[in-house]
């Protein structure tokens, strides 16, 4: 439990009227709260605004027609006076979250009400910024279809300019519910003139379950995904559907609010939360940026009295210091939430490996052109599953080689094993271990082009492998192949060196390369110019999208050294998979900062541990794809794979997509297979003189059940190392095939601009793997359609994105 960050919990009282200062802050801390909210303005200011509004409406001489008025505002609100606010610049404000007035209506359809509300918001934010308040909550748009959300968003956009260092939080409910509507005295909405209210009648469909999210989406879109605009999400007594909760999970939720009515009494009469509420809160609290919690209108703080002569200035604790203060008896709601923290499990291997890397964009590796550093290899080698699975695959291949009576390529009878791209040697060690466990002698060759890593391989050969590995410093594509030692040592065992044994019963039918079709088993076995073939070729060249680190090109270049009749490649095949996702944080990171450094940043596929993302195409059962080309869909083998955290779903270097989501989610993401590669590839000339055969294209239609924004594509892969041994970062199959693997994170193909996907529509995704024999790059296109009967009507399309300027060099 030492690695669990404590909850930061605040106290909110919607009727707070105690003066802000040392006594109030100490009262909150003594009650075991870490912070508290405080209204920026007082009831005096509220009364003053109501008086101005009432006077304007009753004065016939006042021109309230905005369209004909030359004034900035038909009704002007004077600046704040000392009676209008209790805030003053003070150290105690470090523990304060400011709240704007709940009685304003920024989205009013009455232009006067909307304008006065904007003035109030501007005055409050400007003064809070002056005082040094860095966190301010703004009450969200009203829960009715006549609310002008665009006008509300415009007011928030202007508000962001009032404090350049201030974080704003839009306080909204997870879903529309009449029970969430609370009437209050003096609400400006009640003063809206009838002609404006009637001009915007309520519609029969206010957006359904996603109405609150759509309002938020409008606000943050108009505010250009500002990183200073966040969410304060109210967890109500009844939760919405899992799909709605999953969508909120992908958004920048920085504050969770729990009203006293959300709690229920347990058997002992103490407040408690329903199980589904507990699970969702605990999932949100595992985010990279852990939200704060606000307990609302549960208790009133009792103010302590300062002793005579006691100074008001004091060193107030920071939020982290306050969170670690000793617990004391007090509000039972607070005690329960503190207890809820103890229900969190500690960090597992995936959490520890990915700590700090959630939704962190990284450029893919270019191992062919860049020599990796030792620390990079070390990260890969921490995987508890990957190399164990490789060892299993090697052991099975060795066992089958002998069982099926295949002839070995080395004249001395040993099975020839080559590890190409050996790095620091983990696969070499695993190959030696597999040979030892199966009792089969192997002739091991290790290739590495990185001169720095090669130094370490030589040391390992002396200290770990007893000189039993033949090392070659070379690019695998230029290697001439294993070579016999003229002074062969004594052979301990021989396996199937009789050429007649090449076609023993049970062995697979020979698949010959066209160029090698006249080669007999005996000619394969006999070395030519002291060189011979490789029986088992082992590599770990896969990237987050399977082929994005040029595994096909590398293995094609060395394939001619593989035994053309019986040669085995580990991996034997791999497939790339993808799905459209909502990823607002990643979009903001790219569009607001990265493009300023690199203009092509929005056309680079990134390796990223997907965490705050939401799948846009889901179903309650595996569905068949609507392909425009041949590839088949991925079908989930077990539902358990969907219950892991989004960061756990992918596998490490990035791992995951959609898991930190509520574990009760019944929907299954739609993830389709883009393309596949197989090794050895007997359909090509070896070595190949061109690379056109490695180009790929696919197009799929993804059904969309709920409205959402597509910010890009999440990419994964699956690989068959050897029949019966598979690895996967695909959220649908990873738990079944390689649970706990952390070596790869998913890949993310961004869109320059989000594409809105309407409810009940479809989204077409086209992808290309392109090559010009010098480099490899990807292109992708997203198109949105609505369905009207049998017709598809296009409502949006992205640009054709291309990573050619950041291509992988061959």
TrEMBL record:
Residues 573-810 form the PRMT5 oligomerisation domain. Residues 350-570 form the PRMT5 arginine-N-methyltransferase domain. Residues 497-517, 619-643 are annotated as: Disordered. Residues 506-517 have a biased composition (Polar residues). Keywords: Methyltransferase, S-adenosyl-L-methionine, Transferase. PROSITE patterns: SAM_MT_PRMT. SUPFAM superfamilies: S-adenosyl-L-methionine-dependent methyltransferases. Residues 32-342 form the PRMT5 TIM barrel domain. Residues 624-634 have a biased composition (Pro residues). PANTHER family: PROTEIN ARGININE N-METHYLTRANSFERASE 5 (PTHR10738:SF0). Belongs to the class I-like SAM-binding methyltransferase superfamily. This is Protein arginine N-methyltransferase.
